[in-house]
Amino acid sequence: MITRVSEARVRPERFEEFRELIVSAVAGFPALHPGLLGHEVLVAPPHSLLYVSRWRSEEDLVAYAGEGWRDEPVTLPGEEEYLLAPLEVRHFTAAPLH
Length: 98
What we know:
It contains three helices and four strands. The protein is α+β, with helices and mostly antiparallel strands. The chain has a four-stranded antiparallel beta sheet with strand order 2-3-1-4. The relative contact order is 0.30.
């Protein structure tokens, strides 16, 4: 499993509008992307929003985000007008606990 974290630094005055845009945009993702095991939107107003998604495999991530999935965030049209900085994306896998 791969956990993908997309972090948005949002203009404080546009935060609530951006939150609503993202929540609405990702609501249908489980039906569209069979490799998506779970997802959530985490908020830390006034300017931080994370979209966290958990993927079954690298192949599923490629199907969602394209060949550049490791470095290239998936963005919505017009998203940049809400942001203070470009969207950042990171990936994690679970470390075994002994």
